[in-house]
Fold this sequence. Notes:
Layout: H1 2-18, E1 21-26, E2 32-39, E3 42-48, E4 52-58, E5 64-72, E6 76-77, H2 81-90, E7 97-108, E8 112-121, E9 124-137, E10 140-150, E11 159-161, E12 165-167, E13 170-181
Antiparallel strand pairs: 1-4, 1-13, 2-3, 2-13, 3-6, 4-5, 5-7, 7-8, 8-9, 9-10, 10-13, 11-12
Amino acid sequence: MKHCISALTGIFFALITTSHAAVVEVNSAKSRIQVDAKATGHQFCGDLRNYTIKVEGDATTQQPTRIELAWDFKDLKTADEKRDAAMLTWLGGGKPKGSFKFLKSWDESTTGGHAQGILSINGVEKIVAFNYTVTRDGSWVTLDGNVSLDYQNFNLPIIRTMAIMTVDPKLIIRFHLVGEVK
């Protein structure tokens, strides 16, 4: 019985040390979240300049275990104030918000990490999946990836101006998050 308790205690402590949770404090000055869009005759990029984010992961495997991101669309800037104002109107006016909540991740040896989460835009939630990479340099962690989406899936209409210019509904959201493990 004594040996059984010792063995169970050893297994318990091994599980604790192999599954070490770590909080990542994201450095917004070193990080970026961007939206790539194509329109008739040109392309443009939106840069999310302000957001709140919470990131946690397994320090041993570098797998994310929690990512919660929230933002106001007024903080998504495209270098064109008129377009930015039109975007807020297109999103329904007022103070439109967005969010992402991580659900799970998995690895496939040939293609790297994959994650899934709930993306909320315009009050509509959709599950999205995407590839990502994690690199670590000492206490610093970098999480890179992108997700493709169709804004029509979030009950948003096709954007048309002057009857000929259209913004393609297929967007790419790119992220480069840099943080320190605490």
